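User: quick one, sequence for these tokens?
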């Protein structure tokens, strides 16, 4: 059976475990696996560009729903500096102006100084992979389904007490993940590519 969609993955997990009592929780296992994958991976396929608009005198703005981690943020080509909220608060207090620093709080962008007008913030960020009944496939599921399969099977471990397959599936997940990270790194920085140092 080809693994290409969420439904395929649910069927594969059921087939590989050969446990009828897991059928009701298989979607939960995939959800947990997806969360783990998003913690573990930062790939070139996840790099996304977008914008958010500030409002005058509002220090925070909602980030895109798929936002996972920032790469660069800028306003009109001037890059914003990432800082901790404590450092931003200490440096700027209640000042307003064109933002020059930022923090990320959950799914919210916090800007310093507080914007004194509407600005467009250009974002380059890692977007999370989504895989569920509403988002039935994604780049990772299409190109590297083993990552999803073994991550999902690894999440079965609490139900598979003393089952040696759990150890094997965890090892397979780690191997698939590490191989993908290595391959992605090589594609981004091919052998012989000149590295620029600052």
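Assistant:
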């Amino acid at each position: 059976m080809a693994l290409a969609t969420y439904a395929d993955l649910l069927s594969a997990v059921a087939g590989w475990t050969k446990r009828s009592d897991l059928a009701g929780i298989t979607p939960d296992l995939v959800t947990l696996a997806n969360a783990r994958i998003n913690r573990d991976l930062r790939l070139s396929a996840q790099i996304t560009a977008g914008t958010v608009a500030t409002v005058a005198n509002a220090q925070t703005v909602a980030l895109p729903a798929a936002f996972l981690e920032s790469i660069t943020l800028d306003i009109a080509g001037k890059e914003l500096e990432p800082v901790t909220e404590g450092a931003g608060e200490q440096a700027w207090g209640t000042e307003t102006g064109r933002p020059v620093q930022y923090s990320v709080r959950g799914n919210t962008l916090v800007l310093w100084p507080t914007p004194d007008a509407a600005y467009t913030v250009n974002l380059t960020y890692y977007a999370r992979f989504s895989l569920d009944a509403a988002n039935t496939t994604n780049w990772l599921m299409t190109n590297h389904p083993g990552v999803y399969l073994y991550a999902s099977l690894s999440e079965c471990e609490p139900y598979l007490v003393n089952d040696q397959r759990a150890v094997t599936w965890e090892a397979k997940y780690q191997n698939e993940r590490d191989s993908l990270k290595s391959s992605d790194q090589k594609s981004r920085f091919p052998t012989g590519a000149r590295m620029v140092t600052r």
